[in-house]
Protein 1
Amino acid sequence: ELKVEQNPLFLSMQEGKNYTIYCNYSTTSDRLYWYRQDPGKSLESLFVLLSNGAVKQEGRLMASLDTKARLSTLHITAAVHDLSATYFCALRIQGAQKLVFGQGTRLTINP
Amino acid sequence: DARVTQTPRHKVTEMGQEVTMRCQPILGHNTVFWYRQTMMQGLELLAYFRNRAPLDDSGMPKDRFSAEMPDATLATLKIQPSEPRDSAVYFCASGLVRGQGSREQYFGPGTRLTVT
Protein backbone atom coordinates (compact mmCIF):
# COMPACT_ATOMS: atom_id res chain seq x y z
CA GLU A 1 0.00 0.00 0.00
CA LEU A 2 1.35 3.40 -0.94
CA LYS A 3 2.03 5.63 2.04
CA VAL A 4 2.91 9.29 1.98
CA GLU A 5 4.07 10.67 5.31
CA GLN A 6 4.80 14.25 6.18
CA ASN A 7 6.90 15.46 9.05
CA PRO A 8 6.20 17.46 11.10
CA LEU A 9 2.41 17.61 11.14
CA PHE A 10 2.37 20.86 13.10
CA LEU A 11 4.99 23.57 12.96
CA SER A 12 5.03 26.88 14.77
CA MET A 13 7.88 29.18 13.96
CA GLN A 14 9.01 32.76 14.23
CA GLU A 15 9.17 35.15 11.35
CA GLY A 16 12.60 35.33 9.80
CA LYS A 17 13.52 31.73 10.61
CA ASN A 18 14.21 28.87 8.20
CA TYR A 19 12.61 25.49 8.34
CA THR A 20 12.02 22.34 6.29
CA ILE A 21 9.00 20.10 5.85
CA TYR A 22 9.70 16.51 4.89
CA CYS A 23 7.64 14.17 2.72
CA ASN A 24 8.53 10.50 2.64
CA TYR A 25 6.84 7.96 0.42
CA SER A 26 6.86 4.22 0.20
CA THR A 27 6.93 3.36 -3.50
CA THR A 28 8.32 4.60 -6.77
CA SER A 29 6.62 7.48 -8.46
CA ASP A 30 7.22 9.74 -11.41
CA ARG A 31 5.74 12.91 -10.03
CA LEU A 32 5.48 14.70 -6.73
CA TYR A 33 3.34 17.74 -5.97
CA TRP A 34 3.25 20.35 -3.25
CA TYR A 35 0.01 22.17 -2.48
CA ARG A 36 -0.93 24.94 -0.11
CA GLN A 37 -4.30 25.19 1.63
CA ASP A 38 -5.49 28.21 3.62
CA PRO A 39 -8.17 27.62 6.28
CA GLY A 40 -11.56 27.04 4.68
CA LYS A 41 -10.10 27.35 1.20
CA SER A 42 -9.20 25.11 -1.68
CA LEU A 43 -5.81 23.68 -2.59
CA GLU A 44 -3.37 25.79 -4.52
CA SER A 45 -0.65 24.13 -6.56
CA LEU A 46 2.85 25.23 -5.57
CA PHE A 47 5.29 22.87 -7.27
CA VAL A 48 5.41 19.83 -9.52
CA LEU A 49 8.64 17.83 -9.29
CA LEU A 50 9.24 15.47 -12.16
CA SER A 51 12.64 13.88 -11.76
CA ASN A 52 15.35 12.94 -9.34
CA GLY A 53 17.29 15.95 -8.18
CA ALA A 54 14.60 18.38 -9.29
CA VAL A 55 14.63 21.66 -7.41
CA LYS A 56 12.08 24.42 -7.80
CA GLN A 57 11.88 27.76 -6.06
CA GLU A 58 9.18 30.37 -5.76
CA GLY A 59 9.83 33.27 -3.45
CA ARG A 60 10.69 31.98 0.02
CA LEU A 61 9.71 28.39 -0.79
CA MET A 62 11.99 25.80 -2.36
CA ALA A 63 11.05 22.21 -3.09
CA SER A 64 13.36 19.33 -3.95
CA LEU A 65 13.00 15.68 -4.84
CA ASP A 66 15.27 12.70 -4.16
CA THR A 67 13.64 9.70 -5.81
CA LYS A 68 16.31 7.28 -4.56
CA ALA A 69 15.62 8.22 -0.96
CA ARG A 70 11.89 8.58 -1.73
CA LEU A 71 11.98 11.97 -0.08
CA SER A 72 10.85 15.44 -0.98
CA THR A 73 11.47 18.56 1.06
CA LEU A 74 9.82 21.95 1.18
CA HIS A 75 12.20 24.55 2.58
CA ILE A 76 11.00 27.87 3.92
CA THR A 77 13.52 30.69 4.01
CA ALA A 78 13.10 33.72 6.26
CA ALA A 79 9.47 32.90 6.99
CA VAL A 80 6.81 35.60 6.90
CA HIS A 81 3.32 35.51 8.40
CA ASP A 82 1.66 35.21 4.96
CA LEU A 83 3.13 31.73 4.60
CA SER A 84 0.96 30.41 7.43
CA ALA A 85 -1.14 27.62 5.89
CA THR A 86 -1.34 23.85 5.62
CA TYR A 87 1.07 22.33 3.14
CA PHE A 88 0.43 18.99 1.46
CA CYS A 89 2.68 16.80 -0.58
CA ALA A 90 1.04 14.37 -3.00
CA LEU A 91 2.41 11.52 -5.01
CA ARG A 92 1.20 10.43 -8.39
CA ILE A 93 0.95 6.69 -8.65
CA GLN A 94 3.03 5.55 -11.60
CA GLY A 95 0.89 4.65 -14.58
CA ALA A 96 -2.20 6.31 -13.18
CA GLN A 97 -3.50 9.80 -12.71
CA LYS A 98 -4.55 9.47 -9.10
CA LEU A 99 -2.74 11.34 -6.36
CA VAL A 100 -2.12 10.11 -2.84
CA PHE A 101 -1.80 12.93 -0.33
CA GLY A 102 0.23 13.23 2.81
CA GLN A 103 -1.47 14.21 6.06
CA GLY A 104 -0.55 17.84 5.67
CA THR A 105 1.72 20.10 7.73
CA ARG A 106 -0.02 22.94 9.50
CA LEU A 107 2.44 25.83 9.53
CA THR A 108 1.94 28.81 11.82
CA ILE A 109 4.33 31.72 11.56
CA ASN A 110 4.29 34.09 14.47
CA PRO A 111 5.33 37.75 14.19
CA ASP B 1 -9.22 33.25 -15.59
CA ALA B 2 -10.06 29.56 -15.96
CA ARG B 3 -11.23 27.89 -12.76
CA VAL B 4 -12.96 24.78 -11.58
CA THR B 5 -16.37 25.67 -10.20
CA GLN B 6 -18.45 23.67 -7.74
CA THR B 7 -22.02 23.98 -6.53
CA PRO B 8 -23.34 24.21 -3.95
CA ARG B 9 -20.58 25.66 -1.79
CA HIS B 10 -22.36 24.63 1.40
CA LYS B 11 -25.03 22.03 2.00
CA VAL B 12 -26.76 21.05 5.22
CA THR B 13 -29.11 18.11 5.02
CA GLU B 14 -30.73 15.50 7.19
CA MET B 15 -29.66 11.90 7.33
CA GLY B 16 -31.35 9.85 4.64
CA GLN B 17 -31.69 12.67 2.15
CA GLU B 18 -30.16 12.64 -1.31
CA VAL B 19 -27.28 15.03 -1.97
CA THR B 20 -26.00 16.01 -5.41
CA MET B 21 -22.80 17.99 -5.87
CA ARG B 22 -21.82 19.47 -9.21
CA CYS B 23 -18.53 20.40 -10.76
CA GLN B 24 -17.62 22.28 -13.90
CA PRO B 25 -14.03 21.45 -14.91
CA ILE B 26 -11.77 23.90 -16.65
CA LEU B 27 -12.70 24.09 -20.32
CA GLY B 28 -10.52 21.75 -22.34
CA HIS B 29 -9.46 19.57 -19.41
CA ASN B 30 -10.12 15.89 -19.99
CA THR B 31 -9.64 14.46 -16.50
CA VAL B 32 -11.86 15.09 -13.49
CA PHE B 33 -11.26 13.97 -9.91
CA TRP B 34 -13.46 13.88 -6.82
CA TYR B 35 -11.75 14.12 -3.41
CA ARG B 36 -13.11 14.14 0.11
CA GLN B 37 -11.38 15.94 2.96
CA THR B 38 -12.01 15.24 6.64
CA MET B 39 -10.01 15.92 9.76
CA MET B 40 -9.65 12.23 10.50
CA GLN B 41 -8.87 10.83 7.05
CA GLY B 42 -7.31 13.81 5.33
CA LEU B 43 -7.65 14.03 1.55
CA GLU B 44 -8.95 10.89 -0.13
CA LEU B 45 -9.58 10.25 -3.80
CA LEU B 46 -13.11 9.02 -4.38
CA ALA B 47 -13.21 8.68 -8.16
CA TYR B 48 -11.81 10.03 -11.37
CA PHE B 49 -12.76 10.26 -15.01
CA ARG B 50 -10.83 10.61 -18.21
CA ASN B 51 -12.65 11.76 -21.32
CA ARG B 52 -15.87 11.29 -19.31
CA ALA B 53 -15.20 7.59 -18.69
CA PRO B 54 -14.78 6.43 -15.10
CA LEU B 55 -11.24 5.11 -14.58
CA ASP B 56 -11.17 4.46 -10.87
CA ASP B 57 -13.90 4.67 -8.27
CA SER B 58 -12.33 2.32 -5.76
CA GLY B 59 -12.29 5.01 -3.09
CA MET B 60 -16.01 5.48 -3.18
CA PRO B 61 -18.57 3.58 -1.07
CA LYS B 62 -20.52 1.95 -3.89
CA ASP B 63 -23.70 1.35 -1.99
CA ARG B 64 -24.51 5.03 -1.53
CA PHE B 65 -22.19 7.08 -3.72
CA SER B 66 -22.28 7.50 -7.47
CA ALA B 67 -20.28 9.71 -9.80
CA GLU B 68 -21.05 10.60 -13.40
CA MET B 69 -20.06 12.93 -16.20
CA PRO B 70 -23.16 13.61 -18.28
CA ASP B 71 -21.06 15.79 -20.56
CA ALA B 72 -17.59 17.28 -20.75
CA THR B 73 -18.60 20.38 -18.82
CA LEU B 74 -20.35 18.71 -15.89
CA ALA B 75 -19.38 16.13 -13.30
CA THR B 76 -21.74 15.06 -10.52
CA LEU B 77 -21.28 13.26 -7.23
CA LYS B 78 -24.40 11.90 -5.63
CA ILE B 79 -24.94 10.44 -2.16
CA GLN B 80 -28.15 8.52 -1.52
CA PRO B 81 -28.98 8.08 1.29
CA SER B 82 -26.67 10.46 3.12
CA GLU B 83 -25.30 9.67 6.57
CA PRO B 84 -23.65 11.85 9.25
CA ARG B 85 -20.28 10.22 8.51
CA ASP B 86 -20.45 11.70 5.00
CA SER B 87 -19.96 15.17 6.48
CA ALA B 88 -16.81 16.52 4.84
CA VAL B 89 -15.54 18.93 2.24
CA TYR B 90 -15.79 17.49 -1.26
CA PHE B 91 -13.34 18.83 -3.81
CA CYS B 92 -13.45 18.47 -7.54
CA ALA B 93 -10.24 18.87 -9.52
CA SER B 94 -9.51 18.83 -13.22
CA GLY B 95 -6.44 18.35 -15.37
CA LEU B 96 -5.31 17.88 -18.94
CA VAL B 97 -3.73 14.54 -19.69
CA ARG B 98 -1.43 14.22 -22.67
CA GLY B 99 0.98 11.38 -23.19
CA GLN B 100 2.69 10.77 -19.87
CA GLY B 101 -0.01 12.45 -17.90
CA SER B 102 -1.17 15.74 -16.55
CA ARG B 103 1.25 18.20 -15.07
CA GLU B 104 -1.16 19.53 -12.51
CA GLN B 105 -4.58 19.11 -10.99
CA TYR B 106 -6.55 22.28 -10.43
CA PHE B 107 -8.89 22.21 -7.47
CA GLY B 108 -12.31 23.76 -7.16
CA PRO B 109 -13.45 25.67 -4.06
CA GLY B 110 -15.14 22.61 -2.56
CA THR B 111 -18.59 21.76 -1.26
CA ARG B 112 -18.87 21.67 2.52
CA LEU B 113 -21.45 19.01 3.36
CA THR B 114 -23.02 18.63 6.78
CA VAL B 115 -25.37 15.72 7.39
CA THR B 116 -27.33 15.93 10.63
Note: DSSP finds no helices and eleven strands in chain B.
Protein 2
Amino acid sequence: QKEVEQNSGPLSVPEGAIASLNCTYSDRGSQSFFWYRQYSGKSPELIMFIYSNGDKEDGRFTAQLNKASQYVSLLIRDSQPSDSATYLCAVNRRTGGFKTIFGAGTRLFVKA
Amino acid sequence: DTEVTQTPKHLVMGMTNKKSLKCEQHMGHRAMYWYKQKAKKPPELMFVYSYEKLSINESVPSRFSPECPNSSLLNLHLHALQPEDSALYLCASSQLTRDTGELFFGEGSRLTVL
Protein backbone atom coordinates (compact mmCIF):
# COMPACT_ATOMS: atom_id res chain seq x y z
CA GLN A 1 0.00 0.00 0.00
CA LYS A 2 1.38 3.39 -0.98
CA GLU A 3 1.73 5.94 1.81
CA VAL A 4 -0.25 8.55 -0.14
CA GLU A 5 -2.74 7.57 -2.81
CA GLN A 6 -4.42 9.75 -5.38
CA ASN A 7 -6.42 9.10 -8.49
CA SER A 8 -3.98 9.97 -11.28
CA GLY A 9 -6.79 11.22 -13.54
CA PRO A 10 -6.90 13.02 -15.79
CA LEU A 11 -9.84 14.87 -14.29
CA SER A 12 -11.57 17.10 -16.81
CA VAL A 13 -14.05 19.79 -15.77
CA PRO A 14 -15.64 22.68 -17.68
CA GLU A 15 -14.68 26.24 -16.87
CA GLY A 16 -16.66 27.56 -13.90
CA ALA A 17 -17.34 24.10 -12.43
CA ILE A 18 -16.13 22.67 -9.13
CA ALA A 19 -13.13 20.36 -9.33
CA SER A 20 -12.87 17.78 -6.55
CA LEU A 21 -9.53 16.11 -5.84
CA ASN A 22 -9.13 13.31 -3.33
CA CYS A 23 -6.30 11.69 -1.42
CA THR A 24 -5.90 8.96 1.20
CA TYR A 25 -2.90 8.26 3.39
CA SER A 26 -1.78 5.25 5.36
CA ASP A 27 0.39 6.61 8.21
CA ARG A 28 -1.74 7.62 11.19
CA GLY A 29 1.33 9.46 12.53
CA SER A 30 1.05 12.01 9.72
CA GLN A 31 0.72 15.48 11.17
CA SER A 32 0.19 17.95 8.36
CA PHE A 33 -1.41 17.70 4.95
CA PHE A 34 -0.74 19.70 1.85
CA TRP A 35 -1.88 20.36 -1.66
CA TYR A 36 0.79 21.48 -4.10
CA ARG A 37 0.16 22.53 -7.69
CA GLN A 38 2.72 21.72 -10.36
CA TYR A 39 2.59 23.09 -13.87
CA SER A 40 4.38 21.11 -16.57
CA GLY A 41 8.13 21.75 -16.42
CA LYS A 42 7.86 23.79 -13.21
CA SER A 43 8.46 23.05 -9.54
CA PRO A 44 5.63 22.40 -7.08
CA GLU A 45 4.04 25.39 -5.36
CA LEU A 46 2.00 25.24 -2.18
CA ILE A 47 -1.74 25.79 -2.59
CA MET A 48 -3.00 24.94 0.88
CA PHE A 49 -2.10 23.13 4.06
CA ILE A 50 -4.36 21.76 6.76
CA TYR A 51 -3.62 19.99 10.04
CA SER A 52 -6.94 19.97 11.91
CA ASN A 53 -10.04 17.98 11.07
CA GLY A 54 -12.63 19.90 9.11
CA ASP A 55 -12.58 22.43 6.30
CA LYS A 56 -10.18 25.24 5.52
CA GLU A 57 -11.04 27.81 2.88
CA ASP A 58 -8.73 30.16 0.98
CA GLY A 59 -10.31 32.01 -1.91
CA ARG A 60 -11.55 29.50 -4.47
CA PHE A 61 -9.84 26.61 -2.70
CA THR A 62 -11.20 24.50 0.17
CA ALA A 63 -9.19 21.74 1.82
CA GLN A 64 -10.96 19.09 3.87
CA LEU A 65 -9.35 16.70 6.35
CA ASN A 66 -10.82 13.64 8.04
CA LYS A 67 -8.14 11.97 10.16
CA ALA A 68 -10.42 9.11 11.23
CA SER A 69 -10.90 8.14 7.59
CA GLN A 70 -7.33 9.18 6.66
CA TYR A 71 -8.73 11.27 3.86
CA VAL A 72 -7.84 14.67 2.46
CA SER A 73 -9.57 16.52 -0.34
CA LEU A 74 -9.27 19.75 -2.29
CA LEU A 75 -12.19 21.57 -3.88
CA ILE A 76 -11.56 24.21 -6.52
CA ARG A 77 -14.59 26.41 -7.12
CA ASP A 78 -15.16 28.39 -10.33
CA SER A 79 -12.40 26.43 -12.07
CA GLN A 80 -10.35 28.36 -14.60
CA PRO A 81 -8.21 27.11 -17.52
CA SER A 82 -5.21 28.43 -15.59
CA ASP A 83 -5.98 25.83 -12.90
CA SER A 84 -5.00 23.09 -15.36
CA ALA A 85 -2.03 21.41 -13.70
CA THR A 86 -1.02 18.38 -11.66
CA TYR A 87 -2.17 18.56 -8.04
CA LEU A 88 0.04 16.74 -5.57
CA CYS A 89 -1.28 15.65 -2.22
CA ALA A 90 1.44 15.45 0.43
CA VAL A 91 1.63 14.42 4.06
CA ASN A 92 4.39 14.91 6.56
CA ARG A 93 5.54 14.04 10.03
CA ARG A 94 8.24 15.67 12.02
CA THR A 95 11.38 13.54 12.35
CA GLY A 96 14.35 15.88 12.64
CA GLY A 97 13.25 17.97 9.72
CA PHE A 98 9.93 17.14 8.11
CA LYS A 99 9.53 13.96 6.12
CA THR A 100 7.09 14.98 3.41
CA ILE A 101 5.77 12.23 1.17
CA PHE A 102 3.93 13.03 -2.06
CA GLY A 103 1.14 11.20 -3.78
CA ALA A 104 1.40 10.44 -7.48
CA GLY A 105 -0.63 13.54 -8.37
CA THR A 106 -3.91 14.13 -10.17
CA ARG A 107 -3.83 15.83 -13.55
CA LEU A 108 -6.61 18.41 -13.86
CA PHE A 109 -7.81 19.84 -17.16
CA VAL A 110 -10.21 22.78 -17.13
CA LYS A 111 -11.90 23.21 -20.49
CA ALA A 112 -12.71 26.74 -21.65
CA ASP B 1 10.01 35.03 -7.91
CA THR B 2 11.16 31.99 -5.97
CA GLU B 3 13.07 32.63 -2.78
CA VAL B 4 14.92 29.35 -3.16
CA THR B 5 17.54 29.63 -5.87
CA GLN B 6 19.05 26.61 -7.59
CA THR B 7 22.02 26.51 -9.95
CA PRO B 8 22.59 25.38 -12.57
CA LYS B 9 19.15 25.17 -14.18
CA HIS B 10 20.40 22.58 -16.65
CA LEU B 11 23.36 20.21 -16.40
CA VAL B 12 24.64 17.58 -18.81
CA MET B 13 27.35 15.27 -17.54
CA GLY B 14 29.09 12.06 -18.44
CA MET B 15 29.18 9.04 -16.20
CA THR B 16 32.76 9.76 -15.13
CA ASN B 17 32.27 13.45 -14.36
CA LYS B 18 32.06 15.12 -10.98
CA LYS B 19 29.63 18.01 -10.69
CA SER B 20 27.65 19.81 -8.00
CA LEU B 21 24.18 21.24 -7.70
CA LYS B 22 23.74 24.30 -5.50
CA CYS B 23 20.80 25.68 -3.59
CA GLU B 24 20.46 28.89 -1.59
CA GLN B 25 17.63 30.32 0.49
CA HIS B 26 17.38 33.55 2.46
CA MET B 27 14.12 32.98 4.30
CA GLY B 28 15.79 31.96 7.56
CA HIS B 29 14.54 28.40 7.19
CA ARG B 30 16.51 25.85 9.19
CA ALA B 31 15.49 22.74 7.24
CA MET B 32 16.58 22.08 3.69
CA TYR B 33 15.75 19.20 1.38
CA TRP B 34 16.76 17.47 -1.83
CA TYR B 35 14.07 15.78 -3.90
CA LYS B 36 14.41 13.88 -7.18
CA GLN B 37 11.60 13.97 -9.71
CA LYS B 38 11.32 11.84 -12.84
CA ALA B 39 8.91 12.74 -15.63
CA LYS B 40 5.23 12.27 -14.71
CA LYS B 41 6.19 11.06 -11.22
CA PRO B 42 5.94 12.80 -7.86
CA PRO B 43 8.99 14.22 -6.08
CA GLU B 44 10.92 11.57 -4.12
CA LEU B 45 12.66 12.62 -0.93
CA MET B 46 16.44 12.09 -0.94
CA PHE B 47 17.93 14.04 1.99
CA VAL B 48 16.83 16.32 4.81
CA TYR B 49 19.09 18.71 6.72
CA SER B 50 17.89 20.12 10.00
CA TYR B 51 19.97 22.85 11.65
CA GLU B 52 22.76 22.06 9.15
CA LYS B 53 22.89 18.42 10.21
CA LEU B 54 21.80 15.50 8.03
CA SER B 55 18.66 14.14 9.65
CA ILE B 56 17.20 11.94 6.90
CA ASN B 57 18.91 9.95 4.14
CA GLU B 58 16.36 7.91 2.20
CA SER B 59 18.88 5.18 1.32
CA VAL B 60 20.29 7.24 -1.51
CA PRO B 61 23.29 5.72 -3.40
CA SER B 62 26.66 7.11 -2.34
CA ARG B 63 27.24 8.60 -5.79
CA PHE B 64 25.01 11.40 -4.44
CA SER B 65 26.71 13.29 -1.62
CA PRO B 66 24.89 16.14 0.14
CA GLU B 67 26.54 18.99 1.98
CA CYS B 68 25.14 21.85 4.04
CA PRO B 69 27.92 24.44 4.55
CA ASN B 70 25.65 26.84 6.45
CA SER B 71 21.99 27.50 7.16
CA SER B 72 21.44 29.17 3.77
CA LEU B 73 23.30 26.81 1.46
CA LEU B 74 22.78 23.24 0.35
CA ASN B 75 24.88 21.35 -2.17
CA LEU B 76 24.48 18.01 -3.88
CA HIS B 77 27.76 16.54 -5.15
CA LEU B 78 27.44 14.13 -8.05
CA HIS B 79 29.99 11.50 -9.03
CA ALA B 80 29.89 8.43 -11.28
CA LEU B 81 26.20 8.84 -12.03
CA GLN B 82 24.18 6.53 -14.22
CA PRO B 83 21.85 7.49 -17.09
CA GLU B 84 18.87 6.50 -14.92
CA ASP B 85 19.85 9.32 -12.54
CA SER B 86 18.70 11.82 -15.16
CA ALA B 87 15.88 13.77 -13.54
CA LEU B 88 14.79 17.11 -12.14
CA TYR B 89 16.49 17.72 -8.80
CA LEU B 90 14.49 19.96 -6.52
CA CYS B 91 15.76 21.80 -3.49
CA ALA B 92 13.28 22.93 -0.85
CA SER B 93 13.34 24.62 2.53
CA SER B 94 10.98 24.89 5.46
CA GLN B 95 10.72 26.49 8.87
CA LEU B 96 11.29 24.38 11.96
CA THR B 97 9.56 26.75 14.36
CA ARG B 98 6.15 25.71 13.03
CA ASP B 99 4.74 22.20 13.16
CA THR B 100 3.29 22.32 9.69
CA GLY B 101 6.46 22.14 7.62
CA GLU B 102 5.27 23.54 4.32
CA LEU B 103 7.94 23.31 1.66
CA PHE B 104 9.21 26.13 -0.52
CA PHE B 105 10.76 24.77 -3.70
CA GLY B 106 13.39 26.15 -6.00
CA GLU B 107 12.91 25.94 -9.75
CA GLY B 108 14.99 22.80 -9.96
CA SER B 109 18.11 21.63 -11.75
CA ARG B 110 17.44 19.41 -14.74
CA LEU B 111 20.19 16.81 -14.94
CA THR B 112 20.99 14.68 -17.96
CA VAL B 113 23.56 11.89 -17.58
CA LEU B 114 25.01 10.61 -20.84
Note: The radius of gyration of chain A is 13 Å.
